[in-house]
Amino acid sequence: MSPSSTPLPTSLARIVERFQRLSSPKQRYEQLLWYCKRLQPMPELAKVSENKVPGCASQVYINARLEQGKVWFQGDSDSQLVKGLVALLIEGLNGLTPAEILQVSPDFIQDTGLNVSLTPSRANGFYNIFKTMQKKALEYQLAMSAQSLN
Question: CA 94, CA 92: separation in Å to the nearest integer?
Fold first, then answer.
């Protein structure tokens, strides 16, 4: 990571370090599947069109809620590897403020080594999932700003 970039939140930095310790693409895929298994189930009622991630080959849903100024995500996918990416992002971004989420660059995926293992379609899916999470965080940030003006 370049010195001029914003440091990663602690939770995301830990995930990057975990992947950096893995030497092969197979180990990285196994790590993604481990995240997939840890992902809390997303309620079927939350799998609605406004939570569907656009531009993904797989079915991917991301839901968010704001509690005491922090964003908490839920997600799911019909693809195990993509579900692992969803879980990785949720673990890395959960509990951050909207502003903290908006400061994260998706380039951290390169530091994990996953970018070289992902097909172009999955890499694009990762980017779309990440941008959807940032969009939801931005909506909360704008809502909080509007509330503070009232």
Answer: 6
- Rounded to two decimals, the pTM is 0.92
CA 57 to centroid of chain Cα atoms:
17
Is residue 3 assigned to a domain?
A: no
Top-confidence residue, 3 or 70: 70
What is the domain-level CATH number for residue 69? Answer: 3.90.1010.10
Q: What is the pLDDT of residues 53-92, one digit of tens each?
A: 999 889 999 999 999 999 999 999 999 999 999 999 999 9
Q: Which domain holds residue 144?
A: 10-149
Residues 6+ apart with CB under 8 A from 134: 101, 102, 104
Q: 37: which 2 tokens?
A: 């298994």
**Is 98 in contact with 71 (CB distance < 8 Å)?**
yes
Q: Which of the residues are catalytic?
A: 56
Q: Output the CA–CA distances (angstroms, integers) from residue 93 to 24, 26, 122, in the order listed.
A: 25, 25, 19
Asked if 42 contacts 75 with a C-beta cutoff of 8 angstroms, the reply is: yes
As for how many domains the chain has, the answer is 1
Split at pLDDT 50, 70, 90, the class of 93 is very high
